[in-house]
Task: inverse folding
């Protein structure tokens, strides 16, 4: 199986967050050159390429009641705890970017230490023969009953990646990484699973 990894939001309301430093609007991939996949544009979206660190915030303010912040939390991008970082690094050491950030409450008190997570594998991993979505230079996952199928040989030994042909800025992860995250008791993870073929 392949899984899309996202944040499972169990909060009652959608609370506001804001960067107290940096400039999120100026974040971009270090390499904006074209390839055959989704066009890489300036912005903090996931493209599977490293980003320039200059404008990444180091402090993000959270509103709402004080509450536990899960290991995987969505504020601009997926932010992850040291526990998640350690699990990912155990399978793919030195591949992805993790920029330290601090969450603070709107009264200035400490909420959590996390990492701004940037997946740095940009791959073509969808099995074109077995996927039933229409391919028009990219895969449009339109919510229909079509099937998205990944190809194990195209994934190779990767554990976190962005498929460069999928219009959806969500990291894909391997079954081995999901199992390791589950074994570590990671909180806040939501998984959407898809079949995988040889």
Result:
């Amino acid at each position: 199986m392949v899984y899309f990894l996202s944040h499972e939001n169990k909060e009652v309301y959608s609370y506001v967050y804001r960067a107290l430093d940096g400039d999120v609007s100026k974040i971009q991939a270090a390499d904006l050159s074209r390839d055959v996949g989704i066009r890489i544009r300036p912005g903090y979206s996931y493209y599977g390429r490293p980003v320039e660190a200059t404008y990444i915030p180091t402090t993000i303010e959270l509103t709402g009641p004080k509450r536990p912040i899960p290991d995987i939390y969505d504020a601009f991008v997926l932010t992850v705890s040291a526990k998640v970082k350690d699990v990912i690094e155990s399978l793919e050491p030195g591949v992805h970017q993790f920029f330290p950030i601090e969450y603070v409450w709107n009264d200035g008190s400490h909420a959590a230490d996390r990492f701004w997570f940037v997946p740095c594998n940009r791959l073509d991993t969808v099995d074109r023969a077995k996927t039933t979505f229409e391919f028009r230079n990219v895969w449009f996952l339109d919510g229909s009953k079509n099937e998205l199928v990944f190809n194990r040989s195209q994934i190779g030994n990767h554990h976190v990646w962005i498929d460069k042909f999928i219009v959806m800025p969500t990291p894909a992860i391997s079954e081995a990484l999901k199992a390791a995250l589950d074994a570590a008791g990671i909180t806040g993870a939501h998984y959407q699973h898809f079949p995988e073929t040889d």
